[in-house]
Structures are given as C-alpha cells and as structure tokens.
Amino acid sequence: MFELPEFPLPRIFPFGAILFNFLFLLVAIPIESFILNSRLKFDRKSSVFYAIAINLFSNVIGWVVFFFSEPVLPIRVKSELINYIFFDRLQSANVQSLIVLTAFIIFFGTFLVKYILLRVLLLSLAEFGKAPPAEPTPDKNLRRVYKHKLQNTSVVTSILIANALSYSFIVAVLFIRSFDL
Asked: Which of 87-91, 119-123, 135-139, 176-180 has the lowest mean pLDDT?
C-alpha cells in the first residue's frame, strides 16, 4: 500500500572520491583565504568568505563539466577513470601523459573559473549606495585607470598564486597518500 518508488541508486558509491574532494576543499580554503587576506588586503572574514565561495562554486562547476564530458570519453579512458575512482589504481601505464595533460587543463580551467567568480562576487557585493566621486581632473583620471589596471593584475596574480599553492598542497597530499604504509 505504501510502497516507495524505487530510485536508481548506484550499488557502488565512491565514498573515497567524495571524502578526498572534501579533504581538498578543507586544504584549499585556508590556503586561498590566507593569500586573499595577505595579497588583496581583505579582512579575515571576507577572505574566508571569498575563498569558500570561489572554491565551492568552482568545485560544483567542475563536477558538472565532468558529468557532461564523461559520456563522450572513449571506452578505454572511461574504464581507466572508473577503475581509478572506485579502486584507486590505474590499469595501464601509458595513461600518465593523458593524466598530466588533464591536470594542466583542470588547473588553468579552475584558475579561470575562480578569477571570474571572484570578480563577479566583488562586483555584486560592492556598495552601490556610495555617492559618485567629484569630477576628476585628467591627471586623477589617468591615475585611476592605472590603479584599476594594477588592482586587476593584483587579483589575477593573487588568484593564480592561491590556486597554485592549493594545488601544490593537494598534490603533496596525494603523493603522501600513494605510499603504502
């Protein structure tokens, strides 16, 4: 009478991949918030907020891209991917070049997504209620353009440094994990 509909739940659940994704977020958020705090001069609360937001959103976007690109992968790559996610090992040794290429694509894709997300967050959380500044003189206008360029470059380099440090630390964790203790 009160039968629940049967949902197509997987019989094997990748708890290892989920836990390591959570570990990567726990590693990346403090590192990136420290970089945002020290380089962009955000206060601690704001830098932690921005680090959490850009990491969670980029993580969700990354998983969406993965789930949309996985069905179009060749069968050999799919089997290697499934074997690595569920059993934590690779079947063939000639996949390393594909892994390195994929790692570079993921790193720069994540960097681009984090940069765009931070710019959107900074623009959306800006105070729009401020009175417009007085009419600038040409000298002040030139300085403002230069300062805007410098700030934009600072955001790019800060996100690049933060992403590189967090990825380096994650690679170190993966390297330590690879040892059989």
From this structure: 135-139
Rounded to 5°, the CA angle 87-75-57 comes to 65
On whether the pTM is more than 0.70, the answer is yes
| Whole-number percent of the chain with pLDDT over 90 | 33
For position 166, what pLDDT does the model report? Answer: 93
**Cα pseudo-dihedral 72, 78, 81, 84, rounded to 10:** 170
How many whole angstroms separate alpha carbon 62 and alpha carbon 110?
8
Contact yes or no for 162/35 (Cβ under 8 A): yes
Euclidean distance between CA atoms 131 and 134, whole angstroms: 9
**DSSP string of 66-126, one letter each residue:** HHHHGGGS-HHHHHHHHHHHHHS--S-GGGHHHHHHHHHHHHHHHHHHHHHHHHHHHHHTS
Average pLDDT score, the chain: 80
What does the alpha-carbon distance between residue 18 and residue 86 come to, in Å, rounded to a whole number?
11
Rounded CA-CA distance 148/119 in Å is 13
d(CA 67, CA 172): 26
